[in-house]
Amino acid sequence: MAEQSDLKWWQKPVRMARFDCGVDFSPRSAEELEEAARWKKEEWHVNCEWVVGTVGAAPGLGYVATFEGEGLERLPSLEGQDLLRAYLPYARKYGIKVLAYLNMHWFSYTFADAHPGWEQTLSDGRAYGRVHPLYGDGTTFCVNSPWREWAFGVIREAMKTGIDGVFLDGPVVFPGCCSCAYCREKFGQVIPEREDWSDPAWKDFVAFREDSMVDFLREAQAAALQINPDGVIFLNAGNWHSASWRVARDVQKLQAYQHFNGAEAFFHPGPKDHPLHFWAIAAKYLRAGRNPAVVFVHHCHGGWHYIGMPQMEMDVATAQIAACGANPWFAYMMQPSSNQPSKAALERDIEAVGKLYGFLEEHEEYYTDVESAAKIGLVISSQTSHTYVSRLKEITRESGTGREQDLIVDVGTGREIVDWEKRKSLCDDLTGAEVAGTFLALSREHLPFDVVLDERITPEGLKRYDTLILPNTACLGDAQVATIAAFVRNGGGLLASFEAGGYDENGEPRTDSAFREVLGIERVDRAMVPAGYEEYLKVRDADHPALDAFGEEELLPRPVYALEVSARSDRETPLIFMNPINGHYKPLCGESKHPALIAGRYGKGKVIYFPHLVGKDYGELKGLMHEKLIADSVRAVLPGAPWIEVDAPPTVEVELWTQENGKRLLIHLVNNTGDMQHPMSQIMPVGPIRVTLHSGPDFYVYRLSDKESLGCEGTDMETTTVVLPELEVYEVIVCEW
Fold first, then answer.
1. Could you tell me the CA-to-CA distances from 404 to 401, 408, 414 in Å, in that order?
2. Does residue 360 sit in the same domain as residue 386?
3. Which of 100, 107, 608, 642 could be disulfide-bonded to 158 (CB atoms 3.0-4.6 Å)?
4. Can you tell me the distance from the alpha carbon of 11 to that of 320, in angstroms, rounded to the nearest whole number?
């Protein structure tokens, strides 16, 4: 760990915000600007503010600036006032770092018409923004066109105002783009007209799009640092979702040319499932990179930008982000004309954000220069997201949900999906759902873990973990396969599912059996026909630790997507597939010969392999049996007993961090026990919560909120149980040796 005094400001905890009023800016007096800075610092506890530099509002005003700069069109309503230069002294006075928000993705048709050739185009030559108007009105430009030089000029002019850095909202390489003349020339080969994963040129084009974004950001950073070598720059680098390749986002590639890894996690109400750990998964994914992480939380209530989210939803969002080691950010929309919401709404909104921001400010020391204490690594693989297209034709058949209503059962069509775009979308969905479900199960079972990116699958990157999880991590390079094999051979635990390791990093099927040997697979015969109902697994050995929650011969729901495999002779198969029933209300058809769980040792380590997507089914259906199967399988492959155990409701999230070379342990607890709807309007306090550490009693323990010492029970020389009487929304238990 570095000395805290040696850290740059952006390497320390940051509490970001953006206060926006669309295009309704007006000149502000010196007194008003100072009061605004004081208000943001003392009421909201912000220490880094995004101030609008180029406007992100209809009809695409990314070319209109709030500051003076060479060649820039100024926002008329400011009447000549340079907002950045006018506000900066007062922000400095109150210790607020200022970043300019630069809209780099949304431009009006009028501006585009004045700059022919700048727009992103589809394969048929039409401009993307003319076919798919951005936000209903506007277009977007290509990172390889001359627009890039215009953008670099905007960045340089913004940095000349003396600000601390810039945030780039875009650019975005939109789906199907770009086939403009500049991209065709730079790509150097014929750009495929449609998505075709059997065509090497298509894969090259996918990589070209990402490399074009990296090339743009590299030069954008150079432009910013040319003016201020200590300045910062970053953009929306994309979240963990498996389809992020469609917008050419890979945080691992972009992070070398930005100071933060940031991405949106905007809540939108609607008829869909809202993951309990919506912000946590974004925070962990971004934190897994090499830069400080920022999660963008829109304070607005979905599409109603002038109405704030309920306090509890904002509290949980901020708590999850902070507990996972990332920096929180929120955007606050001021109402037009008055530039202020109603007094009642304002007080409510400040309470929603300012309370937890104030907590983070007061206890900033405990969030500075921390290291994860988790011993489990969950791989989220961009290689898999970007290149995985399963070659198993059975899984591309349309399956039903099994839902029965009004005597009608959804059994699906069984038709094979032959369209490449649909097949890739299906594989994206399978991978993303397997990750999300596994994430949820680990969180609910209080098994602290980190997210591990592809670049960390190295001997050095895995050194801190004793267990690795591959949730359908299908695409692995030879060096990564060798690293994982050595990790297990030397005593590490491994849990893998479905087609993990079945393809190389470019999405090509593996021809060797080296990784199958690690997993205990003798042979993969085929995929089972997807079935979302009335198919089963059966417990054959309830004494196996992975099946601790089940009785002998107990039935479990079969995951929709599953493989028929044969196990190696040196492995156990305590859980098996039942023969297919192929219908509703039919008798069971007996046991099959196919294992549903393969367990055993590889070298000194323990391995469990699921030939199915149990994480996907758990995440979507929330079946307790699947949660227990995942969690107990993780426990079964751990090299030893968990070093921390938490007795709390499953809705309590647990995150572990250390400071001072392990002399301080920080146990973050987030209470997600809400009123069974999103957005949440109420959090139900829970407690007492008991945290058992496999450590003797030679440490001092207290809760961070009031520094009150906490009682212990059952203390002996090997374990100590700390008791937190009650948890409201968020607390940190501090243990110091």
1. 9, 6, 18
2. no
3. 100
4. 19
Q: Tell whether 704 and 588 lie within a shared domain.
A: no
CB-based contacts of 224, cutoff 8 Å, min separation 6: 155, 156, 159, 165, 166, 231, 232, 233
Domain count, the chain: 3
pLDDT, one tens digit per residue, over 155-194 is 999 999 999 999 999 999 999 999 999 999 999 999 999 9
| Residues 681 and 481: beta-carbon distance below 8 Å | no
Task: Examine the pLDDT at 303 and tell me if it is beyond 80.
Answer: no
Q: Which residues contact 141 (CB under 8 A, 6 or more apart)?
A: 107, 112, 115, 118, 119, 120, 147, 171
316 lies in the same domain as 422: no
Instruction: With cut-offs at 50, 70 and 90, classify the pLDDT of residue 237.
Output: confident
Q: Cα separation of 77 and 275, whole Å?
A: 42
- 612 lies in the same domain as 681: no
Q: Are 398 and 417 in contact (CB under 8 A)?
A: yes
Tell me how far apart the alpha carbons of residues 669 and 446 are, in angstroms, rounded to a whole number.
10
66-107 per-position pLDDT tens digit: 999 999 999 999 999 999 999 999 999 999 999 999 999 999
* Closest to 294 measured CA to CA, from 236, 244, 241: 236
Q: What's the CATH code of the domain at 17?
A: 3.20.20.80
Do 113 and 247 reside in the same domain of the chain? yes
Q: How confident is the model at residue 227 (pLDDT cuts 50, 70, 90)?
A: very high
Higher pLDDT, 274 or 607: 607
Do 668 and 558 reside in the same domain of the chain?
no
Question: Could you tell me which residues are beta bridge partners of residue 333?
Answer: 20
Token pair belonging to 423: 């097949």
Q: Hey, what's the torsion of the CAs at 429, 434, 435, 436, to 10 degrees?
A: 80
Residue where a domain terminates, one of 637, 664, 679: 637
Residue 406 confidence class, pLDDT cut points 50, 70, 90:
very low
Helix (H, G, I), strand (E, B) or coil at 268: coil
Tokens of 61: 């005003």
pLDDT tens digits, 485-497: 999 999 999 999 9
Assign 3-class secondary structure to 356-425.
HHHHHHHCHHHHCCCEECCCEEEECCHHHHHHCCCCCHHHHECCCCCCEECCEECCCCCCECCCHHHHHH
pTM: 0.94
**The one-letter amino acid at 582:** N
CATH number at residue 655: 2.60.40.1180
Could you tell me if 161 and 183 lie in one domain?
Answer: yes
Which 3 state secondary structure label does DSSP give 439? helix
Residue found under tokens 């968020």: 730
- For the cut 90, the answer to whether the pLDDT of residue 403 exceeds it is no
Domain end, chosen from 604, 637, 670, is at 637
Residue 682 gets the label, from left (phi > 0), alpha (psi -120 to 50) or beta, of beta
Q: State the residue range of the domain holding 587.
A: 376-637
